[in-house]
Amino acid sequence: MSEKKLAFIIVADQPYVHSDGEDADFTAAASSIFISMTETYIPLLRMMERLESDGVDFKLGLVMTPLVCEMLENPVLQENFVTFLDRRIAFGKKELERNAGNDAVLSQVNRTLETLEETRRVFTEVYGKRLLPVFKSFAAKKYLEIISTAATFAHLPHFADLPESVNAQVETGIHASRVFFGENGDGFYLPQLGWAKGFDKILRSYGINYTVVDARSLLFSQDANLAEGNGIFEPSRTENSLVLFPADPFTSRDFGSSSGYLRNPLYRSQERDLGYELPLEELDDFVGEGNIRLQTGYKYWSNGSGEGDGAFYDKEKALEQVKKDARAFYDERYSRLDAASKIMGETAPMLVCEVSARLFGEYWHEGLDFLEEVIRIAGKEGGFTLTLCRDNLDRQFSLKRVNPYPCSSAGEGYAENLIDGSNNWMVRYVKKATERMVHLAESFPMETGLKARLLNMGTREVLLAQSSDWPMMIQDGSAPDRAAQEFKDYITSFSLVFDALASNTVSTEWLTNLEKKHAIFPWINYRVFSIKK
Question: Which of 188, 227, 336, 340 allows an S-S link to 233, with CB 3.0 to 4.6 Å?
Fold first, then answer.
């Protein structure tokens, strides 16, 4: 019987938060990246350090969007993150005083306070305030595979009728990976696993050997003969020999559904934060503009505590449940892989589990404990081997050929939530801006100096406007006003760039300020929007 394989792919994407150094911004928008650093990115690195120290071999695929990388490397945001931690630590010390004599609450406060103090120490003293070099070091040791993705996490099928736009997102994303990690690797992650006809030709033209697709892209393919194939347990290839790894459709059910692991009543409630419960006058630094409440990071209750105080979160019981859930996850995957192995003979069955990074820690407090337990069980029992997609390309030119069905993991399979009644007004603006950017790239093929700066700035604004984060935030109601305003700002800024080039006049002061405000991709070249000859 053949070897059984499982690949984890962790996808780190977040809405872009800019900082020009004028002040320390701790609005809800700015705090989002700091919360992810506190609860997901740094704990993920600490988990990998423990596994390495204990001699546990592990393999993880990591998609870190260029915008996340830009934010993590921003010196202003790095300094603001330290201040962010200091505010939470100071709040925790006040909580110790406020709850003196209440042992049940004090234990919760002390645990959170100790974690924050350790996070601050590690970030400043061990990592030197920079996380990307640490991720890069694990990639160099072959524990991590860094997978490139689109420049601003645009849902590419929505721009399939503008191939220059898809090229710009892909080329900029690949170059960003080289800048931040020194390599772009073999794979390219399509945001929301969005597939459209012709994407294989584009990706192969940039040297990409594989991508991950929604399982329905293969299962609904007209030329996918399931009687002869191995379904989602084996990759296939397109006409241009781009290898397609189907994502396990049950992973989203196990993690993200209403009955998923993170909903267990023993796990910590991530919604009930003191920032939403205490009177405003007791929150000090955790009230934003317009009396918007911000998270403090102090969460005392479990999912099963109900609306009242109820039962406090019990860390020990939660960790016992983690072991049960990790065992259930491992056993279920092993059972499916074992059944597939009996059918596939000498061909090794493989499952690809693609999960949002924010699920591990930020959305599910015990998520990284769960992931670590799964990795340790796999290493100890060996029922299946943890693998990387790039290590499974040996049959790239002999795999079964398919013509993938246009599909996405967003919405009900077609990313309809990114273009519904709440956000479809954005389409006409971003499409027109994209068309104009292609026109500019063609009209000014060899510009330098001030005009090149204008064209490069226009490129940044269009790429930022294309991000799928904005329509997603409007549709799910997480921050609709912010998303709409960000989008409008990018479109307005691009329109000013377009008008300045058309009239051959520009305010250098305005351009310099805009370059400071949206200081992403300093190496950007507007010619990425040129029509490929």
Answer: 340
